[in-house]
Amino acid sequence: MAIRSTYPDVVIPEGSLPGLLLGSLTPEEAAHPAVIDAGSGKRLTYGELATAVERLAAALAERGIGRGDVAVLAAPNCAEYPVVFHGVLRSGAAVSPANPLNTPAELAHQLRDAGARILFTTSAGLGTTRAAVKEEGVRVEEIVVLDAADGVPSLDDLLTSTAATPPEPTADDLAVLPYSSGTTGLPKGVLLTHRNVAANLSQMQPLTELRPGKRSIAVLPLFHIYGMNGIMNVSLLNRATVVTMPRFDLKAFLAAVAEHRVDHLFIAPPIALALAKVPFVTDYDLGCVDVVMSAAAPLDAGIAQELAARLNVTVLQGYGLTETSPCTHGIPADRPDVDRGSIGLLMPSVEARVVDPVTGEDAERGELWVRGPNVMRGYLNNAAATAATIDSDGYLHTGDIVTVDDGGVFHVVDRLKELIKYKGFQVPPAELEALLLTHPGIADAAVIGVPDDEAGEVPKAFVVRRSPELDEAAVQAFVAERVAPYKKVRQVEFVDAIPKSAAGKILRKVLRATVQS
Prior knowledge:
Oligomer: single chain
Family: Belongs to the ATP-dependent AMP-binding enzyme family.
Domain AMP-binding enzyme C-terminal: 431-505
Strand order of the largest sheet: 3-2-12-11-13-14-15-16-17
Keywords: ATP-binding, Ligase, Nucleotide-binding
Protein name: AMP-binding protein
Largest sheet: 9 strands, mixed
Organism: Amycolatopsis carbonis
């Protein structure tokens, strides 16, 4: 039985995402600050942002980049990020955001799979990006830095273009190609159209109090779908100001919030825990903060209540996936009766089912399936993974086990999917397992997520040794040298054998039971 949102369906915007966000500015809006970089102090008004987006689109068109092409953006949060993001979209091309901490091999996989022709990065990332573009199968033709570096084209160079702006893309054109592990497996390109992303922005409107004059902070990475659409784009839609930070440091974060009088904090549970518990938080003037939204991983109700009392703020929680652009559920700011440990209500134009994963029948407790205009077109060049995720009725199977009460409030109580959430970042066990098996001293390996108070979950490896002298430190170092920092194996346990089904599938439930016992 389909469960429908209690909100009226939204009117889905037509046209392009840049057109929706920047295409009809009043003189007052054009003068309003759109983005402020907390570190450098660089500011862009809405008018300056819109002009830069048009100029970048023209420069890309001059290079023959447009509809059907992909540009990868591998950079930390900064004032230039929305310029590149929306400039690429305005050109008709799609943007594929990448983690700037990726190793050359990880970045090369994304560049190769996406078929990227151009790569935007920073001078600090040139070593990694140059190594990545040399990998076999990568066809990047040009690297552009957002700041400046000798002998490398810069964003400022492209913004001097005087060429004509290309035709505006359509709502059905591919807009964003983020990489997600989905419910299982290795990272896959998620096909999100302009309509998908714009629809989700409209769906978020009843759940946000962002308005002109409000300020949000983007300390969570903008390459993550939460940062990209749930912070940057929703702030731009509502003419709020986005304060960017390149990385999370608690003291720098608190100082930026206080200095820029940020009233909306968009965070993940580890930051919520710090705000609730760390003694020096109260040394900063945080009286400007009204709303704290936590997402990317489950937030404990007790922590939410403690944070709300400590800072005298409204604490909310949201839920979504990369494949849903991302938001499907949220706690409305005007519903203090909704349990803070829940993921709240279905957003407008979203339908859901709660399905017993064994019987396939509707159940009180079961896998969450969702359907709506924000659901991805599918996975890039992976029809099998798409079919395994989206059924013939258009429902996306999330892999999360939920309950829903009579008031339409959903709680996530477990999950089917194997994905590990480390501080909100996705860590696919299959990727770490494949890497571990390349070590000459390892005969077999399996990875699961284990609970951690600070990170939510950390990767733990179960290893069958081929070499008896192999120790925990050596395993951890081997992985750390080859993956981004958030993917590091934090715990290692040596075992005689990895439990597997008759078909050879790793029995992760057995491994989880050994951790809990």
